[in-house]
């Protein structure tokens, strides 16, 4: 049997509050539920996920760097760092891994400052506005990309 695709799932600042605050914007699903759903979905996709959340930019950069040579792709919701962090973009680009950027909300239907992403330009794909289901869609798309005929 082929090796499982090793996918790193990163969640940025404040996403640990999911399900507890602002459900009208971000839904009622908790981060633990999202991570459990991804682990279950991965089993049916010849994949395995490692999920990690941090409120700290440098910690996220460290985890991205650690993925080099150890992971096959990255799913990331950079949270507010989406709109501010050249460091996260540079780290993702340096890995040379396929990256899918996820947002729970449709950032383009929100304030102007959320319309710019430092990550989208180096991402394979961007999913925005599908709520928690966006993570599963991202995982599916990333695995399909990894399994594409070359
Ligand atoms: O829609 C998304 O997933 C965002 O990445 C979420 C970020 C926001 O800054 C981006 O513009 C879009 C904010 C995450 C905050 O998460 C919370 C969850 C529950 C309660 C409060 C904040």
Q: Could you describe the 3D structure shown?
A:
This protein starts with a strand and ends with a helix. 34% of the residues lie in helices and 19% in strands. The protein is globular. By secondary structure, it is α/β, with parallel strands linked by helices. Helix 2 runs parallel beside helix 5 and helix 3 runs parallel beside helix 4. Strands 2-1-3-4-5 form a five-stranded parallel beta sheet, sandwiched between helices. Strand 3, helix 4 and strand 4 form a beta-alpha-beta unit. The protein is built from five helices and five strands; from the N terminus they run βααβαβαββα. The protein binds ligand CA2. The site of ligand CA2 has 16 residues, from loops.
- Spatially, the strands of the biggest sheet line up as 2-1-3-4-5
Bin the helical content: 25-40%
Structural class: alpha/beta
* First-to-last CA distance: 20 Å
Number of strands: 5
Report the radius of gyration as a whole number of Å: 14 Å
Largest sheet: 5 strands, parallel
Strand residue content: 15-25%
Note the total helix count.
5
Oligomeric state as shown: single chain
Average pLDDT for all residues = 97
Poorly predicted ranges:
none
Gist?
The protein is of the alpha/beta class.
List keywords for this structure.
binds ligand CA2; 34% helix; five-stranded parallel beta sheet; 150 residues; alpha/beta
Topology:
Blueprint: E1 5-11, H1 23-26, H2 31-43, E2 47-53, H3 57-66, E3 73-77, H4 86-95, E4 99-103, E5 125-128, H5 133-146
Parallel strand pairs: 1-2, 1-3, 3-4, 4-5
Helix pairs in contact: 2-5, 3-4
The structure holds ligand CA2.
Ligand CA2 is lined by residues 14-15, 17-18, 21-22, 26, 77, 79-80, 82, 103-105, 107, 114.
